[in-house]
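User: For this week's homework, look closely at the record that follows, marking any run of repeated tokens, and judge whether sequence predicts the tokens.
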Amino acid sequence: MLENLSVFKDINICVGSEIFPQKDSKVLSRKTWIPVKNFEGLYEVDIKGEIRSLDREITVNGKKRAIRERVIKSRLGRGGYHTVVLSKGGKHFTKHIHRLLAEAFVKNSLNKPFVNHINGNKQDNRIENLEWVSHSENIRHAYRIGLSHVSNNRKVIDTCTGKTFSSIKEAAKCYYLNYNTCRNYLRGKRKNKTCLQYKV
């Protein structure tokens, strides 16, 4: 059961193909399971992020096997996101739970491709903490809340002379290097022909 729906006062909640404003939160007063996108008939997700496998019959090595309904255990992936492994057509797919939740419950009328955790906490999968964003919005959000840092402003040091520069631009200008070439040297995208490195 959903205990506290007051947190949804400022958002619209998408359930299947319908959108419900907070004033209709009674719609969510009971356990609501929504088919997982692209896994319809196999898995469902509820608003708290639980994923369940549905009753079905599969064939393994020519033999039929019954799969009973059960809630799938999630795990914390390398990137810090909660994930589950789903199976379809004999293949296994690792899925981020926050994206499955957004696809089921968060309106995406502009068809944006990415899902953000608004507060920057990757493990906070509450619906009100998820939003659909574009690629540029995703990058700006990461910088704004401190998840990413602008590397162009990192200090650079010449390990041969010990001289320090406040930025890539300053180092490139001093050694008459193209800015992009210098940046690629430092990022390891090209063989570094200089003594320049990011200062630790």
Observations:
- Residues 1-11, 19-29 have pLDDT under 50 and may be disordered.
